[in-house]
Every structure is written in structure tokens, then in C-alpha cells.
Design goal:
Layout lengths: L1 E5 L5 H7 L7 E6 L5 H12 L3 E10 L2 E9 L5 E6 L10 E5 L2 E4 H16 L5 E6 L1 H4 L5 H10 L3 E6 L3 H7 L5 E7 L3 E6 L5 H5 L1
Parallel strand pairs: 2-9, 2-10, 3-8, 8-9
Antiparallel strand pairs: 1-11, 3-4, 4-5, 5-7, 6-7, 10-11
Helix pairs in contact: 3-5
């Protein structure tokens, strides 16, 4: 099944389309890098102000891109998460280095505490932005994502297109819908059998 929704508003069309789908579902927001995945996640949360979770936002200083901060949707708190090494100071505690970025221990603790609190309080849907190459190696958000999946709470998660098929396999996601961001600001919503993703995506 497939639906096409206009993405020109604040996410209401997408929300209305998926709102009637059964709970305990995983919604995977996918698209290319800088396609608007994080923006769509924030808009989906803001439409109903239900649930909670984490999105990543680019961090700038006087127009220079430094890295990424984590923003918690349900209480608007934030934490530094990833920086280019040249912008790290003596207070930075590195937990992991992947690609060009150094990742903060405090940022990862901020993420883990948020996810555990949502699970303990059974708050849903849970929003996690994003799962990428590091998570495919079992790092960064991997354990938090697995905890949410195990909890049975409804999960919205962003995954870049190039990681989609492998991510579904690595996380053992069985029951899911894909919200694919298309060119021109439209979202295509599909239900996939994981065994047929390769055929259907091409």
C-alpha cells in the first residue's frame, strides 16, 4: 500500500495519514542527506505534541558549521553531541569518533536518559533522529533504539536512504511503515515486507 501526501504544511497531512495505523508500529522516515528528515520529525511531534524523543540539529557559530546538538522534543532541553575535532575544547569528553566527528559522552548520556525515561513512563510515540552508519556498527543510538523496539512503544526513526535496507535487518524491525521524503516536498508512505525491500526500492 502506498499514499502520497503533500509536505508543504507542518506535517499534518502525514500525521493524519498515519494516525489510524495500529500502535506498536515503527515508522521509518527516510531520504537523502539534508532532505528534511529531521524537520519532518519535528513537525510530526509539534502537530499533536504527543510523545517525546530526540532530534539532531546542526550547530553553527557565526555561519561556520561546527557539528550537531541533540534537542529533546518534549521539554526543549539540549546537549552538544558531535563536533569537528578542531572545535573541541578541554571540557569535551569523547565517547566515540566516527567519520569526521567526535561524539560527546555527555551527549550520549543525555540521549540514553531521555529514551529510558520515555520507556519507563510509557510515553509514545518515541522519536529518534537518526540511525546511520554508526548504528549499523552497534554504536551511539543503537542500544537506545533496541530498547524502544523491545518496549513495544510506537517509534518514529530517521534513516538515510543508503542505510535503509541494512538498518531494518540489523535492528530486526518486523512491523513498519516507511515515510519516504521525495523531491518537491512530498512524502510517500509505504508498507513494506522486509524481504521485498530490494525489489520495491529499485
Amino acid at each position: 500500500n502506498s499514499h502520497i501526501c503533500s509536505g508543504t504544511d507542518t506535517g499534518s497531512n502525514v500525521w493524519e495519514t498515519v494516525a489510524g495505523i495500529k500502535p506498536e508500529m515503527v515508522f521509518i522516515v527516510t531520504g537523502e542527506i539534508n532532505s528534511g528528515k529531521s524537520t519532518l520529525m519535528e513537525n510530526l511531534y509539534n502537530f499533536n505534541k504527543e510523545g517525546g524523543g530526540i532530534i539532531t540539529k546542526k550547530k553553527f557559530c557565526y555561519g561556520t558549521f561546527l557539528g550537531y546538538d541533540l534537542y529533546r522534543l518534549d521539554n526543549q532541553t539540549k546537549a552538544e553531541f558531535a563536533l569537528y575535532p578542531q572545535f573541541i575544547d578541554d571540557k569535551w569528553e569523547e565517547v566515540y569518533r566516527f567519520g569526521p566527528f567526535s561524539f560527546s559522552k555527555k551527549g550520549l548520556i543525555f540521549f540514553d536518559n531521555c529514551i529510558q525515561e520515555l520507556i519507563n513512563k510509557k510515553v509514545q510515540p518515541v522519536f529518534i533522529d537518526e540511525a546511520g552508519p554508526a548504528e549499523l556498527e552497534g554504536k551511539l543510538f543503537f542500544m537506545g533504539i533496541k530498547k524502544v523496539l523491545h518496549s513495544g512503544l510506537t517509534l518514529y526513526i530517521t534513516v538515510r536512504s543508503s542505510c535503509l535496507e541494512k538498518m531494518i535487518s540489523v535492528l530486526s524491525i518486523k512491523d513498519f511503515q516507511i515515510l519516504k521524503i521525495e523531491k518537491g516536498g512530498f512524502y510517500e508512505i509505504k508498507g513494506y515486507d522486509p524481504r521485498s525491500i530490494r525489489r520495491k526500492e529499485r
